[in-house]
Amino acid sequence: MFRYTKLSALREIGFWLLAVVYLAPFYVLIATALKPDSEVFSTSALAPPKSPTLESFTHVLSAGGESDIKVGLANSLFITTGSIVVLVLLGSLTGYVIARSTRRWSRGLFFLFLVAIVLPIQLGTVPLYIGARTLHLTGSAPGMIVLYGGLLLPLSVFIYAGFFRGLGTDYEEAAAIDGAGPGQIFFRVVLPLMAPATGTVAILAGLIVWNDFFTPLIFLGGSDQQTLPVAMYYYIGSLVSQWNQIFAIVILSMIPILAFYLIAQKRFIQGFAGGLKG
């Protein structure tokens, strides 16, 4: 039976203090974004806004050209969603084949994917850009989805293959006895059991693609389909010390990925719990 002691109280107070320390930057971020220009420098960063306003968000969303946040947000959502779909489909299929194959080439192919994870992406930027330009993949959002699908496929395959190797073949054999084909076995039996792996791939790939600045800067340079990090770069570069607008654009960039992370994390926990019950 749990007893609430002085040590428990001290531990609880310590955790609350730690939570306050971690949440303090978010408070400063939100409070500064809601302050008008007259309060940004006349009040402390920890002081709440006396006259809260959404003018900073209005200024940010009304920008145009290379600094158009709305266009950057839409492009980032499209590229991130498309990349996750491609990585889940191709990564799960490839990982399943590697994990279930008993031939020697499967082990060698798996180690090749490991090598691709270790090597920095920047090493192949020049030949990759030349190849993408030859295939007319530069300067377009669909081209970025293809690019991210190739760059992050080794990570997706590594995660799925590890999960598949820990999954028994009982369900697959039972489905085959019932007359299910290979496609039905995979998409209706195996893939639903891989909810933890799918959640992991979605979270990791979503965070990487959404926050990536270098790749879209190079492969979308000169086009009107810049992603949100690049649009933020151009917008913040035009500001001097308007911290309320800078923090407003940071908040706008955080909301979609935080919402996605919370949803994907919930699915991950549900899938993992379901796998344990099974």
Describe what you observe in this structure.
With 278 residues, the chain is an all-alpha fold. It folds into 2 domains: 6-53, no CATH class; 67-239, MetI-like (MetI-like fold), CATH 1.10.3720. It has 13 helices and no strands. It has helices at 6-33, 37-40, 55-61, 69-100, 104-118, 125-134, 141-165, 170-177, 182-193, 195-211, 214-219, 228-237, 243-277. Helix 4 (69-100) packs antiparallel against helix 12 (228-237). The chain is globular, with a radius of gyration of 24 Å. It starts with 5 loop residues before the first helix and ends with a helix. Residues 271-278 have low confidence and may be disordered.
CATH superfamily of the largest domain: MetI-like
Overall helicity: over 70%
Domain module tally: 2
Q: Would you tell me which CATH topology of the largest domain applies? A: MetI-like fold
Can you tell me the CATH class of the largest domain? Mainly Alpha
| Strand residue percentage | under 5%
Shape category: globular
Report how far the terminal alpha carbons are from each other: 30 Å
Task: Count every helix, treating DSSP H or I runs of 4 or more residues as helices.
Answer: 13
Radius of gyration: 24 Å
Sheet with the most strands? none
Secondary structure: number of strands: 0
Low-pLDDT residue spans: 271-278
Q: At CATH's second level, what is the architecture of the largest domain?
A: Orthogonal Bundle
What is the SS-derived class? mainly alpha
Average pLDDT metric: 84
Helices and strands, in order, run as HHHHHHHHHHHHH
